[in-house]
Amino acid sequence: MFVLHLTVGSFVALLLAGAAVLAVWTVTRFGRLGPRTLGGAMLHELAAMMLVAALPNLAEATAAAAFPGARLVIAFGLVLPVFTYLFLASLWFVRLLVDLFGGLY
Description:
Blueprint: H1 8-29, H2 38-64, H3 70-100
Helix pairs in contact: 1-3, 2-3
């Protein structure tokens, strides 16, 4: 039986890489999704940053519930979606800036 041993740092790096891949896939698959104004893009970015700032408190509250799968819920139910949204909002913001300045030259 093969057992994979990951350090916490490696797991977090893989989780963040997965969130970035999900965000890139979402932007490429659903190209029309996202804000079309600079204000809308900034609002999404601000909301994403607020969620990232609230993440430690949400994780502590989930861990305090002390049910058997709490660590999985924190990793895949909180951290992955929040960071996917952060990367997605960042991609939307960059896409809007590229459109606003007429492309990359």
